[in-house]
Design brief:
- This protein is of the alpha+beta class.
- It folds into 2 domains: about 15-145, no CATH class; about 180-250 and about 270-435, Heat Shock Protein 90 (2-Layer Sandwich), CATH 3.30.565.10.
- Helices cover about 55% and strands about 10% of the residues.
- The chain has helices at about 15-40, 50-65, 70-85, 95-105, 110-130, 145-220, 225-255, 270-280, 295-315, 355-365, 400-405; strands at about 285-290, 320-330, 335-340, 370-375, 380-385.
- A 5-stranded mixed β-sheet has the order 1-2-3-5-4.
């Protein structure tokens, strides 16, 4: 039996040979060929010999190490360039390796060191052209003019400015990539929260109804088989609806791109919720006030889910057999209020506390608020205020702000869906005896 040796992650910080070698070879060819051609038109300069060609190749060779020791490479290419000029060889693209070395060092964050090196290059060039030319080849070479010195200074300043622009551009590109990656990660987190909230809202109501009706069927199956049959029929219908809702959510997730989706549920399906609650033994009274106006998809969906979750909590955790749903259409928004008269059941099965958090996240995603807590005259109240729209939001369905909505759920310390009244503006808090999981 043979075992393959696991391959470790590639080493970071050591660039590959090809990205370094290809430009270096190009610069070497440019300097050698370009200087040879330039020498034919500079008869007063020394002809290239073995030392001249060695200096032309020394700069590109140093560039192989520009990522490891950028400052040393910049200084080395500067020395090679000054020696080449001081020995009287033809002017030409000998400066190409110096430019690349400066760019690499500035991009690596060594702007001050490169500026000092550029100053030394200019000082050396001026020293050779103003004084040392008397003793250096070629013989008969004259003193540099102020125009030539000014041109050299301007050229060096232009190289430094271009290198700085290159560094700024590289940093901007890297920053944009990091921000884009962070935005994608944040968007993925928000999408996961939205999916989890949607699945909770889709399943919690139906499963709670199934749980209640299953208990009824078990209690009546021997003495009242007809009522038990009715409860089982309700279970079948609720499970079928839950399965259909889950399939709808999954088909939406699997749909590529902007595939068309079936309409999201809204308050037009409120009679269905009332009927399902009645099947679970909860009588729901619905009151609508104000002038009804068409709601945006996100607001309509959020209002529906909040009512659904509130009624689910009444069925699961309240001893009340009645609930009141009030929809108040107001200028710029809608208020949803769900009241029940039953006390919280202490010591019951505890849930995960996702219902109230989901309500607040849905409301906060639209710029709304949710307050929950016990009523002064007994019972429990869920009140939500949802605006018709939120200026500047690109999506109308309220799916895009789940990440920031998490702050709206801050302060949620209850162990269940009715354990605390702290919402985005909540000041109500249930006592431990009133907590409903």
């Amino acid at each position: 039996m043979t075992y393959e040796e696991p391959q470790g992650e590639p080493r970071r910080g050591r660039p590959g040979v090809r990205p370094l070698l290809v430009p270096v070879v190009g610069i070497a060819v440019l300097q050698v060929v370009g200087s040879g051609v330039a020498g034919r038109h500079q008869t007063h300069r020394l002809a290239l010999d073995a030392l001249g060609y060695a200096l032309l190749l020394a700069g590109p060779a140093l560039l192989l190490f520009r990522r490891r020791v950028p400052v040393a490479v910049a200084a080395g290419t500067a020395v090679v360039t000054l020696v080449y000029i001081a020995l009287g060889y033809p002017y030409g693209p000998i400066f190409a390796s110096l430019v690349v070395a400066f760019f690499s060092a500035v991009a690596a964050g060594h702007r001050r060191a490169v500026s000092v090196t550029a100053g030394l290059v200019f000082a050396g060039y001026a020293l050779v052209g103003e004084w040392l030319y008397r003793w250096l080849p070629p013989s008969g070479d004259g003193r540099l003019s102020w125009a030539e010195l000014s041109g050299a200074a301007a050229w060096l300043l232009a190289v430094l400015a271009a290198a700085e622009l290159y560094r700024v551009r590289r940093e901007q590109i890297a920053r944009d990539r990091r921000e884009r990656a962070e935005a994608e990660r944040r968007q993925a987190d928000e999408e996961r929260m939205r999916i989890a909230r949607e699945l909770h809202d889709v399943l919690a109501h139906s499963i709670s109804l199934i749980n209640v009706q299953a208990g009824v069927a078990l209690a009546l199956i021997d003495e009242r088989p007809e009522q038990a049959r009715t409860a089982l029929t309700t279970i079948k219908a609720a499970s079928k609806e839950a399965l259909g809702d889950v399939r709808h959510v999954l088909s939406t997730l699997r749909a590529p791109g902007e595939a068309p989706r079936s309409p999201a549920p809204g308050l037009d399906r409120l009679p269905e919720l009332v009927g399902q609650a009645a099947a679970a033994g909860l009588s729901v009274d619905v009151t609508v006030t104000g002038e009804p106006v068409p709601l945006p998809v996100g607001t309509d969906l959020a209002a529906f889910r909040i009512v659904q979750e509130a009624l689910t909590n009444v069925v699961r955790h309240s001893g009340s057999r009645t609930a009141r749903v009030r929809l108040a259409h107001e200028p710029g928004g809608i208020e949803v209020r769900v009241d029940d008269d039953g006390p919280a059941v202490a010591g019951g099965e505890s849930g995960g506390g996702n219902g109230l958090v989901g309500m607040r996240e849905r409301a906060a995603a639209l710029g709304g608020t949710v307050r929950t807590g016990p009523r002064p005259d007994g019972g429990f109240r869920v009140r939500a205020r949802l605006p018709h729209g939120r200026p500047g939001r690109p999506d109308a369905d309220g799916h895009g702000a789940a990440g920031t909505a998490g702050g709206a759920a801050g302060g949620h310390t209850g162990e269940g869906d009715r354990g605390t009244g702290e919402g985005t503006e909540g000041t109500d808090r249930a006592t431990p005896a009133e907590e409903r999981p």
